[in-house]
Amino acid sequence: MDMGLWNGLQWCWIFNWRRPLFQWEKGQVEELKMKLEEASLAIEGNDVPHWRFEERGNYSTKSFTTAVLAREIETLTSKNVWRGVAPPRVELLIWLVLAGKINTRSRLKKMKLIHQDNANCPFCNRVEESIEHLFLHCDFSWKLWCHSLLDWKIETVMPGSVETWFDMWMNNIKTGVEAKLWWSVFYANVWAIWFHRNKKVFENKEVDWTDVAYLIKSRVCVRGLYWCVLFVFP
Ligand SMILES: [Zn+2]
Fold this sequence. Notes:
Shape: globular
InterPro entries: RVT-Znf (IPR026960)
Domain Reverse transcriptase zinc-binding: 59-145
Protein name: Reverse transcriptase zinc-binding domain-containing protein
Organism: Crotalaria pallida
Pfam family, one: zf-RVT
Bound molecules: zinc ion
Largest sheet: 2 strands, antiparallel
Helix content: 40-55%
């Protein structure tokens, strides 16, 4: 399928989608377009991969490490999101949240895709829906986290960023099945918040936080049982 055409020496991208885009996808398309604009295509020659963190364009582990240490690459590899304690789509969501790539209303407002008047949190409708507000500070989310932490007899203060919250959670040293359970509580909470947020935004479905809290607990318990069985009968 043609993805565009040459307008003189300039390549113009043309996207044809199989279905109408959802609102949250429009933001991703705008982001893709901005990324594509950074590159100018040559009319002749073959495509070759170019690693931009090394002078000659060749990838090496050393150049990657140097770039990461110099913070040229905003990487989340060190965060170790991919722990195998939740389905891949859940891990991907966590990665997107930590990378600040999730299309909250605040982000869509910055991209001028929604009006300022529509940028409030769908749960409380009091504060702009930033990542931090939605996943940490909104009353709805805060109650979910507290409910989960109560099971582990932990009291804490919510930090200012999701990244710090993730670090605090993952640095709470635990081992074996207990560690897996602990990690999965984090993943289950973030997933549930985003899932029910979307239910509210796109289907106008309200949910009581207590129902979500028990859903999270049951999900973690089911996975815990699975891991215990694996542990007992490897
Ligand atoms: Zn809120």
